[in-house]
Amino acid sequence: MIVVAGAGGSLGPYVARALTAAGHDLAIADANADRLKPLPGEHHVVDLLDEPATRAWAESLDGVTGVLHLVGGWRGGKPLTEAPLDDWALLHDLLVRTVQHTTRAFAPALKAAGERGRFVIVSSSQAQAPTSTNAAYAAAKAAAEAWTLAYADDLAETRGTANILVVNAIVTDEMREQNPDKAYRTFTDAGHMAGALAWILSDAAGTMNGHRRCAHEARARPRRDGASVAA
Predict the structure, then answer these.
(1) CA dist 27 → 75, 119, 144 (Å)
(2) How far apart are CA 68 and CA 124, in angstroms?
(3) Which structural domains are found in the chain, ordered by start?
(4) Helix (H, G, I), strand (E, B) or coil at 39
């Protein structure tokens, strides 16, 4: 079974459909039940900011081999000297605390899965190349990445993996329909992202652990020296 946390976001439907087509059983979660209604898989309403609730959810599921963390959010647009620090509090909870609770809750299941155990987050190029108007967002993404790389080290003893898939921004079919004249040159297609995430869950990606990979490189072969590929 594959768990998709934050499945009600813009990327979630693409991921749920791609994984179902690949033959995976899904347990998908969001804090809002309505966002889950059109999606395949078992539906679970979970507040990932509530650690006991997240642990209870994890313990209720059997046979989990992979967890995709798709919880997202953004605040920004003002220089760091002017941006309200409340932005940091909100983004820390959305982008860091939910990763912490999810990794801790599913650690027993992913370790029990051995070499099939997989954990993946979606991150932003801002984490490595932050701009002044995205300081809080970039810092939160960087913290989530560091936590995930530490989780990769924790899973390595059972040959499980934790990896980071990086994009500048994601474009969906709905966004293209709303803005048909926009080129979206620096955006990654949501369908491509879903395919890349499905590949990271596959046996073919079993040797890739603790990597930070750009979405367009996700199906590329890991370097033999084990180094990460930076965005």
Answers:
(1) 29, 14, 22
(2) 15
(3) 2-217 (3.40.50.720)
(4) coil
90 contacts 132 by C-beta, under 8 angstroms = no
Closest by CA position to 54, among listed 63, 45, 62: 45
Nearest one of 118, 142, 144 to 130, comparing CA atoms: 142
Task: Dump pLDDT digits (tens) for 10-51.
Answer: 899 999 999 999 999 999 999 999 999 999 999 999 999 999
**Residue 33 token pair:** 């039940």
The answer to whether 164 and 231 are in contact (CB under 8 A) is: no
3-state SS class at 161:
strand
pTM value?
Answer: 0.90
Classify residue 72 as exposed, middle or buried by CB count within 10 Å of its CB (0-12, 13-18, 19+).
buried
Give residue-wise pLDDT tens across range 157-180: 999 999 999 998 888 888 999 999
Residue 111 neighbours by CB distance under 10 Å:
15
Task: Give the type of residue at 39.
Answer: L
